[in-house]
Structures are given as C-alpha cells and as structure tokens.
C-alpha cells in the first residue's frame, strides 16, 4: 500500500511538532543516557560502591541517604557534594552523612574513562541504587542525564524533613516536591538499612514533650533496649539501627517494626500512629507479596524522587570534580 504524499507531509509535521514540544518542555532523564558517550558508567560506579561497602557496610545507607538529601534540595543536582563553609554539606542535617569519598573515587575513574561526560548527580543516583542492591533490595533502572547544579546553600536544608516534624509538616514538605503520602511512606522505607545517632531520638526515652516519661508510641518491651543503647547523659554519637534486627538487609521488616512500636526516630513512629500514613504502612506488612511489593515500589518511588526539579540539557554543568563547581 502506498502512502500519499499528503499523508507523508502530515506525518512529518506531527513529528516535527512533537520534537519542538519536547524541546520546549526541556529534556527528561532516560535510561541509557550515556550508552554512546560512556558505556562503562554503571559498572564503574557499581565497582566503586561495592569496594567501599565491602570494607565498611555503613557506607551503603550513607549513600542512600545522600541521594535523598541531594534530590530534596534543588533537585538531584549534586548540590550536596559542594565543599565550603555555608554549603548544604556544612548544614546540621547533613553533618552525619557518609560516603562522599566513594562518589569522588567513582568520579575520578569516570574522568579517566570518559572525561567531562558523567554528572556527579548521576553518580549519586547510581550509587544509591547500587547500595540498595548490595544490601538485598531489588534492582531498578536509573534514568540518567542529570546536570550538576551551581548553587549550594546551607539555609536551603531547612526544607529537609526533620526527625521531629509533625506528620502534617512531613506531608507538606514531600508535597512541595510533587511526592504524595504514599511516596513518603515508601521512600522512608529506606530506613530499612542504616542507623541513627542517639542525639536524634534519646529525647523520646526520658523526658518526651515535658512529660518526664517516654514517648507513649514506643513499645514497652523495646524501651529498655533503646535506653540501654542510649543511656541518659551517655554518648550522643552512638549509633542505633533504624530497623531493629535487620540493619544491613533491605526489606519490609522496617514496617513490621513500625507496627510493633519499634520505630526509633519520632518521624518513623508517626508513620504508624498517624492514620494518614498507617494505611500505606499496612500495604507493606507481611511475608510474600507485601514484602515483594515494597521492594518493587521502592525503586519506582526512587525514580520519581530522582526526577523532581531535575536539571537536564543545557542547564547546570558537568563538574570536573564533584566537590566544587567548574
Ligand atoms: C520524613 C522523612 C525523613 C526523615 C525525617 C529522616 C530522618 C532521618 C534521621 C534523623 C536519620 C538519622 C541520621 C543520623 O543519625 O546519622 C536518618 C537516617 C537515614 N535516612 Fe532518613 N529520613 C527521612 C527520609 C529518608 C528517605 C526518603 C531516605 C531514602 C530514600 C532516607 C534514608 C536514610 C538512611 C539510609 C539513613 C541511615 C543513614 C546512615 O546509616 O548513615 N531517609 N534519616
Ligand atoms: C526539633 O528539634 C530541634 C532541635 O534539634 C528544635 O530546634 C526544633 O524546635 C524542634 N522542632 C519541633 C517541631 O519540635
Ligand atoms: C505535647 O504536649 C502538648 C501539651 O500537653 C500537647 O498538646 C501535644 O499534643 C504533645 N505533643 C506530642 C507529640 O505528644
């Protein structure tokens, strides 16, 4: 069958229009962005993460949290990596972040393999995925093509959710990033790996909200356990698993702990005590399908987080080193 030349012209016009609207809207991240320009990007990042996590398992949660803190402030643009006195990295909510040296190591190798091509923001996104996989989570494909930002200000970190934010504030902070309550519950499931310093929750154990007693959300049997890990007046830098009994293993056990009053930080405990989020926690409870549901939904939520306010195309730059703009 022959297509008439009028039809051909029509098809051509539609294609042109589609191209222009895409350009006008800005480019999107996509899987395989570096296929032609840096085909080894994923294996280079993965081996840097693997080496680091093998020698120190605490690096995996560090890299996962780094991605969240990067993406939440100015989009995932590696603004978290900039060194300086008043940058995001220097702000209190980021003071305990770990794994920066892994990003630098991967970047150094990438600059040898394909100079000036791979953004630091994409390295952070890949390293977060690889950390989840290394701790037993399900793999997802990471859309790439982010550009590195030029701005990093300590004051912007006030928009990060805090451990003692009310649920309304947490929900609002996520909504400001285009993330709903279900995304919130799914993403905070990242707390299935890693630890928190006593400094960030010991107020719940002894004199919560001026009651001279503990936070009633804490399980009675769990309380002595937490108190012995964080004695009143003890070492505030001591670190305690966020997912008791499963700190190095990625899975839905975190939600089981929430249901059992074994959330460690206040914001986690509220995911269960607040009815707006409890129903999403319930979806992830149980063995078999619910557990597997969390693992697959986590990857989807991470991709969504990774596309909020993202810079692509000609925005920003590709940094030469991740700790400073060019
Ligand atoms: C309401 C939102 C959130 C709040 C209030 C929150 C708060 C916290 C706090 C207070 C800590 C302990 C930090 C420390 O003592 O070093 C922590 C650790 C952590 N967070 Fe979150 N977080 C939130 C969401 C997320 C999300 C969305 C992710 C990832 C997708 C994430 C991943 C982590 C990880 C992996 C750790 C452990 C870090 C380590 O062991 O070094 N968090 N979070
Ligand atoms: C949360 O804790 C910080 C200190 O760590 C305090 O300055 C702030 O007022 C607290 N916020 C709420 C909502 O209680
Ligand atoms: C703290 O105490 C105040 C006053 O008693 C009360 O209104 C508030 O709901 C309490 N907050 C929490 C988180 O329990």
Strand percentage, roughly?
A: under 5%
Order of helices and strands: HHHHHHHEHHEHHHH
Query: What is the strand tally?
Result: 2
The coarse silhouette is: globular
Q: How are the strands ordered across the major sheet?
A: 1-2
Question: Helical residue percent?
Answer: 40-55%
Q: What is the terminal-to-terminal distance?
A: 56 Å
CATH homologous superfamily (4th level) name of the largest domain: Peroxidase, domain 2
* Uncertain residue segments: 21-25
Bound molecules: protoporphyrin IX containing FE, 2-acetamido-2-deoxy-beta-D-glucopyranose
- Rg from alpha-carbon coordinates: 22 Å
User: Which class do the helix and strand fractions yield?
Assistant: mainly alpha
How many independent structural domains?
Answer: 2
How many helix segments? 13
Q: Please state the average pLDDT score.
A: 93
Largest sheet: 2 strands, antiparallel
Outline the secondary-structure elements.
Elements (H helix, E strand, L loop, with lengths): L4 H21 L15 H15 L3 H14 L27 H14 L6 H15 L32 H9 L5 H8 L6 E3 L5 H4 L16 H7 L9 E3 L11 H7 L6 H8 L1 H9 L5 H17 L21
Antiparallel strand pairs: 1-2
Helix pairs in contact: 2-4, 2-5, 3-5, 7-12, 11-12
Bound molecules: protoporphyrin IX containing FE and 2-acetamido-2-deoxy-beta-D-glucopyranose (NAG) (2 copies).
The site of protoporphyrin IX containing FE (HEM) has 24 residues, from α3, α7 and β1.
């Amino acid at each position: 069958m022959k297509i008439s030349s009028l039809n051909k012209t029509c098809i051509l016009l539609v294609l042109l229009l589609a191209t222009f609207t895409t350009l006008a809207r800005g480019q999107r991240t996509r899987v395989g962005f570096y296929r032609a320009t840096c085909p080894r990007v994923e294996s280079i990042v993965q081996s840097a993460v693997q080496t680091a996590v093998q020698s120190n398992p605490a690096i995996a949660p560090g890299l996962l949290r780094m991605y969240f803190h990067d993406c939440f402030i100015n989009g995932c643009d590696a603004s978290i990596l900039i060194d300086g006195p008043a940058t995001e990295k220097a702000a209190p909510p980021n003071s305990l972040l770990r794994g920066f040296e892994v990003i630098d190591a991967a970047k150094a190798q990438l600059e040898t393999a394909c100079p000036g091509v791979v953004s630091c923001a994409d390295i952070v996104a890949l390293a977060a995925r690889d950390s989840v996989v290394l701790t037993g989570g399900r793999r997802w494909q990471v859309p790439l093509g982010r550009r590195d930002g030029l701005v990093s200000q300590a004051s912007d970190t006030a928009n990060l959710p805090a451990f003692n934010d009310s649920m309304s504030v947490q929900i609002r902070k996520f909504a400001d990033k285009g993330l709903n309550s279900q995304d919130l519950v799914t993403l905070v499931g990242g707390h299935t790996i890693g630890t928190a310093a006593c400094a960030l929750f010991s107020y719940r154990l002894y004199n919560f909200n001026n009651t001279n007693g503990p936070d009633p959300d804490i399980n009675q049997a769990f309380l002595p356990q937490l108190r012995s890990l964080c004695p009143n007046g003890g070492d505030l830098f001591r670190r305690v698993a966020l997912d008791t009994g499963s700190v190095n293993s990625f899975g839905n056990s975190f939600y089981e702990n929430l249901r059992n009053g074994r959330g460690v930080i206040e914001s986690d405990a509220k995911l269960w005590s607040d009815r707006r989020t409890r129903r999403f926690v319930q979806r992830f409870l149980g063995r078999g399908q619910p557990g597997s549901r969390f693992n697959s939904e986590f990857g989807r939520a991470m991709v969504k987080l990774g596309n909020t306010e993202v810079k692509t195309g000609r925005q920003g730059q590709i940094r030469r080193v991740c700790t400073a703009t060019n």
